[in-house]
Amino acid sequence: MAYQITRKKRVTEALELCNEDGAVALHLDVDIDVDAMGGRIADAQDTLRMAQELIQREPQSEKAQEAFGASVIALFAVIFGKNGADNILAFYDGYYSEMLVDVFPFINDVVMPAVNEASAERKQQLLNMANAMRKK
Question: Closest by alpha carbon to 9, among 104, 113, 118?
Answer without folding.
Answer: 118
